[in-house]
Amino acid sequence: MIVDRDQPESQRFGGDRAQSIARWLPPVPLFPLKPLLDYLVVAVAKRRPELFNRLGDNCQKRFLIDPNNLPFFLLLVPDPEKPQLKAFNRGHAVEYDVRISASFLTLLKMIDSQTDSDALFFNRDLSITGDTEAIVALRNALDDIDSTLASDIAAAFGPLSGAVRALFSLSGMQKGPRS
């Protein structure tokens, strides 16, 4: 179960139905993701320190990133001293300040600026709950960078960045730097 400290029990993530389904599904082994997520969040933080300046006090907030069609979710803490990106199986209790939920592909397209988050929100393809100031600060920080977060993630793979960009292209998300 994912927990928003400020939400009443009746409005917590997933509701009874999602939680009952998660109880019956076997947990996904996430330990192979840990070193990859640790590496990626540190690499992007080193490449884009200006993100933290733009986030200001919101660097200590916990951003729950919920690809709602996958059996796990991510928790991002964009602390400039120790950035964290962790994966958790559904059913795991996690406190967060902001929850961003959409399909995995929609979330990938958002980090590559291929889709308008406002349009997704109003079309109900994207759900955002929690600290509005923090999510606006994150969106503004991502909008201010010259390239895309997807390009930075691909670049973190060094000599394999071309292969990662090819995978992004196959998913229909990689367009290259914004102009």
Notes on the structure:
The chain is of the alpha/beta class and 179 residues long. It has one domain: 2-Layer Sandwich (Nonspecific Lipid-transfer Protein, Chain A). Helices cover 42% and strands 18% of the residues. It is built from eight helices and seven strands, in the order βαααβββββααβααα. The strands form two sheets. The protein has a five-stranded mixed β-sheet with strand order 4-3-2-6-7. α7 (149-155) crosses α8. It is globular.
Helical proportion?
40-55%
Largest sheet: 5 strands, mixed
The percent range for strand residues is 15-25%
At the fold tier of CATH, the topology name is Nonspecific Lipid-transfer Protein, Chain A
Number of strands: 7
What is the strand and helix layout of this fold?
Elements: E1 2-4, H1 15-24, H2 33-47, H3 50-55, E2 63-67, E3 72-77, E4 84-89, E5 94-96, E6 98-102, H4 104-111, H5 117-122, E7 127-130, H6 132-144, H7 149-155, H8 161-170
Parallel strand pairs: 1-5, 2-6
Antiparallel strand pairs: 2-3, 3-4, 6-7
What is the structure about, briefly put?
With 179 residues, the protein is α/β, with parallel strands linked by helices. Helices cover 42% and strands 18% of the residues.
Which short descriptors sum up this protein?
8 helices, alpha/beta, globular, two-stranded parallel ribbon, Nonspecific Lipid-transfer Protein, Chain A, 179 residues
